[in-house]
Amino acid sequence: MSELKFPDPLVVGLAVTRLGNSSVTYRLAIFEEPADAVAAVGHWVHVYVDRANRRPVPIPDTIRALLEKARVE
User: Fold this and answer.
1) For the chain, which end, N or C, has fewer CB atoms within 10 Å of the first or last residue's CB respectively?
2) Any idea where the domains of the chain sit in the sequence?
3) DSSP 28-53
4) Can you tell me whether residue 1 is helix, strand or coil?
5) Is 37:2 a contact under the CB 8 Å cutoff?
6) pLDDT class of 1 with cuts at 50, 70, 90
7) How far is the C-alpha of 16 from the C-alpha of 72, rounded, in Å?
8) Residue 63 phi, psi (nearest 5)
9) At 2, which helix (H) or strand (E)?
């Protein structure tokens, strides 16, 4: 890991690490230009919910197909 400072240019990498029925876990890495070493890493979970009842719903098939392309082991 290394220090990041504004306004130095950055590169952000994004991957899907878990694809559940209603949730997806994303992992990101931030690199300072040139992108030769990782400066920071993080992750977050996105849960798909119904707008009306605020309950989890399955990830739509079209979105799931796109997320599969970004999935890593």
Assistant:
1) C
2) 10-69
3) EEEEETTTSSEEEEEEEEEE-B-TTT
4) coil
5) yes
6) low
7) 6
8) -75, -40
9) none
